[in-house]
Amino acid sequence: MAISGGCGDIGQATARRLAEEGARVVLLDRVSKDVLAADLSNNEQIAYLYCDVTNRDSVAAALTTLVELCGRLDVAIANAGMVANERFLDLEPANLRATMEVNFYGAFNFAQLAARLMVSQPLSDRGIRGKILFTGSWVQDMPFPQGTSYISSKAALKMMAMVMAQELAHQGVRVNTLAPGIVYAGLSKKLHDADPDFRGRVAAAIPLDEMQSAESVADAYAFLCSSDSDYMTGASLLVDGGATLVKRS
Ligand SMILES: NC(=O)c1ccc[n+]([C@@H]2O[C@H](COP(=O)([O-])OP(=O)(O)OC[C@H]3O[C@@H](n4cnc5c(N)ncnc54)[C@H](O)[C@@H]3O)[C@@H](O)[C@H]2O)c1
Question: How far is the CA of 76 from the centre of ligand 1 (A)?
Fold first, then answer.
């Protein structure tokens, strides 16, 4: 299986969990593998390949190498992402463009090239050719201040996944989105630690009162990668500590 943005916090937690389940995991990222935790860089089930998802040649080259290494691609998790929070009136067009470039166009590149690969490979013994998963976000269905670029990219991703699921259903490819909440890791951890205003808004937003862990996201991915979810396609699995509910206390 492959995880784009695999060297980030959620990518690493997911790789660790899926390797524990016995999967062979290839991390694709544009940062160097030097950022990997020691237990991952020393794990024989986990490999790293350079990949910039905004560059189709880079994605194609990484997938070719991956097939040489692993023989086939059973699961592709389009997880690479970035965030640029700005108030709508101040939003820099270049930041909107960059966010869509990574979060949406990059996910499209990875998912389309992975899907082309999957439809050409034989059915697995589970009767499917592959699974494509997207890291969405609870905000894909929910406005959040300063989130125009990020939220619009995740809403677009969710709809792309549904269209893909519909078109690929008869070709043995499942397509689903995982929508985490506000994770104390990666993108949100940086914002949380740097911005008191963000901290205040987060505290007010989560009914379960604590930020999500990257391991909680990995648990949900373990389900989506397993045969337990084989009947799911075109769905979005929301695991957000209730953030989508409006907190009323
Ligand atoms: N942290 C959260 O609260 C949260 C919540 C919901 C969803 N998400 C989503 O989870 C995913 C992972 O985010 P994270 O929180 O682990 O952040 P992170 O910054 O730790 O990881 C993001 C990874 O994506 C990689 N990346 C960025 N642009 C890339 C490109 N062009 N090509 C290849 N790799 C690229 C980065 O190098 C990084 O390793 C993102 O899609 C994010 O939107 C995060």
Answer: 15
**Whether the model pTM is above 0.85:** yes
Residue 135's nearest CA partner among 203, 23, 220 is 220
* Domain boundary assignment for the chain: 2-237
Q: Give catalytic status of residue 150 as yes or no.
A: yes
What is the β-pairing status of strands 236-239 and 130-135? Answer: unpaired
Q: Tokens for 239, please give them.
A: 């695991």
Q: Which listed residue (48, 105, 150, 231) is catalytic?
A: 150
Which of 176-180, 192-196, 198-202 holds the top average pLDDT?
A: 176-180
Residue 81 Cα, ligand 1 centroid: separation in angstroms? 4
Q: Which fold has domain 2-237?
A: Rossmann fold (3.40.50)
Q: Which atom of ligand 1 is nearest to the CA of 212?
A: 3
Which spans in the chain are helix H? Answer: 9-20, 38-41, 56-70, 93-99, 107-119, 148-168, 186-194, 196-203, 214-225
